């Protein structure tokens, strides 16, 4: 399926906060999360945001993003800021990535620039460039060292485990830290998780520090709007942590990581508008969304809103620039994301 691509620039009038899949997410800490694009090179069977088959993809202009980050740092304070680039997609598809990182470092107060990637598009040249522009850490979503399991989970037939592992070795030799972030799918990649623990410990035994190669096992979470691995029933958090404790004992490795392990602490949030579920508000529609039943609204110059269109309504370009009353479905002040629906 071919998808549309929309470039979000300053003059597009699309605000960069308030919408989950683009722009900036502020969870009230020293971390500023950036979502510069929505395209992905994979369509993983477990993807919680269903990336890889959006009808419309978005790419945010890097200058526009940097300008917004500057405003957010002004509010949070010019010290110990981490920029975490974590798109609903694959960041190595973002052409302006190196410029973005370079421009971000020019802002005062940034201590860490990290990014999430599935790693498959890495090559020695890209690693050199990421090293040159000063990327601090890459969080790699590596769920297995077994090519067949990876092919199954990522829904492809040519997952190149060898190449990925070679590139991880190159990253370890560079100034970039590596955080392996496998998702544990109970019953599906249990032994693979243990392989990744061995891999991590082997590298630490070779002299790489705990900071240089980190391991953060993630719980498989199922979201209504995401893709799901059919056979798997997600376990409770208690079960997940109990399993991690067993592995910690067995391998003498710390696996339960918390905010303090990443230097995350509370900070001022960007100002948000307080809405409650069910509130009726007036918004201007400024763009289509990723799906035909989704669009982006604007509350004011700073705050956007995701608007879901109730069946049988689907998005049409004639909606752009029009004002509508929409009803708040979800307003999450922890991360400044607001969702509404229309018609009310
Ligand atoms: S899980 Fe990550 S790599 Fe896989 S489709 Fe989703 S965004 Fe892409």
List strands and helices in order, with pairings.
Layout lengths: L3 E5 L14 E4 L4 E5 L20 E5 L1 H15 L4 E5 L11 H9 L4 E8 L6 H9 L4 E4 L6 H8 L6 H13 L3 E4 L2 E2 L5 H16 L7 E3 L2 E2 L17 H15 L28 E9 L5 E5 L5 E6 L13 E10 L4 E6 L2
Parallel strand pairs: 1-4, 3-5, 5-6, 6-7, 7-8, 8-10, 9-11, 14-16
Antiparallel strand pairs: 2-3, 12-13, 12-15, 13-14, 15-16
Task: Please provide a written account of the structure.
The chain has a seven-stranded mixed β-sheet with strand order 2-3-5-6-7-8-10, with helices on one face. Strands 12-13-14-16-15 form a five-stranded mixed β-barrel. The chain folds into two domains: about 5-260, Alpha-Beta Barrel (TIM Barrel), CATH 3.20.20.70; about 280-340, Nucleic acid-binding proteins (OB fold (Dihydrolipoamide Acetyltransferase, E2P), Beta Barrel), CATH 2.40.50. The longest helix is centred in the middle third of the chain and has 16 residues, at about 190-205. The chain is globular, with a radius of gyration of 20 Å. The protein is of the alpha/beta class. Helix content is about 25%, strand content about 25%. It binds iron/sulfur cluster (SF4). Iron/sulfur cluster (SF4) binds next to loops.
């Amino acid at each position: 399926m071919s998808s549309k691509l929309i470039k979000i620039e300053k003059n597009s009038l699309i605000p960069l906060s308030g919408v989950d899949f683009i722009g900036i997410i502020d969870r009230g800490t020293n971390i500023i999360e950036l979502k510069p694009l929505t395209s992905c090179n994979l369509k993983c069977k477990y993807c919680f945001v269903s990336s890889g088959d959006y009808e419309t993809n978005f790419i945010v202009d890097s200058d526009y993003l940097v300008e917004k980050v500057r405003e957010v740092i002004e509010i949070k304070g010019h010290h110990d800021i981490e920029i975490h680039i974590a798109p609903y997609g694959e960041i190595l598809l973002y052409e302006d990535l190196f410029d973005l990182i370079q421009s971000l470092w020019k802002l005062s107060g940034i201590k860490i620039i990290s990014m999430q990637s599935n790693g498959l598009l890495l090559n020695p040249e890209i690693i050199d460039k990421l090293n040159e522009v000063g990327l601090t850490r890459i969080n790699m979503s590596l769920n297995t060292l077994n090519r067949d399991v990876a092919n199954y989970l990522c829904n492809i037939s040519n997952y190149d485990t060898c190449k990925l592992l070679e590139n991880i070795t190159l990253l370890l030799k560079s100034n970039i830290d590596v955080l392996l972030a496998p998702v544990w799918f109970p019953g599906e990649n249990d032994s693979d998780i243990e392989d990744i623990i061995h891999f991590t410990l082997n590298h630490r035994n070779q002299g790489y520090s705990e900071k240089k190669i980190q391991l953060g096992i993630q719980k498989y979470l199922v979201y209504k709007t995401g893709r799901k691995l059919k056979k798997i029933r997600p376990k409770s958090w208690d079960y997940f942590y109990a399993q991690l404790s067993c592995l910690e004992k067995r391998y003498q490795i710390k696996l339960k990581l918390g905010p303090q392990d990443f230097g995350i602490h509370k900070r001022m949030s960007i100002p948000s508008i307080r809405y409650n579920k069910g509130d009726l508000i007036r918004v201007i529609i400024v763009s289509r969304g990723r799906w035909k039943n989704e669009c982006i609204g604007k509350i004011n110059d700073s705050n956007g809103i995701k608007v879901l269109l109730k069946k049988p309504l689907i998005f049409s370009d004639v909606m752009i620039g029009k004002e509508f009353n929409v009803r708040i479905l979800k307003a999450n002040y922890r991360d400044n994301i607001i969702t509404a629906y229309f018609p009310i």
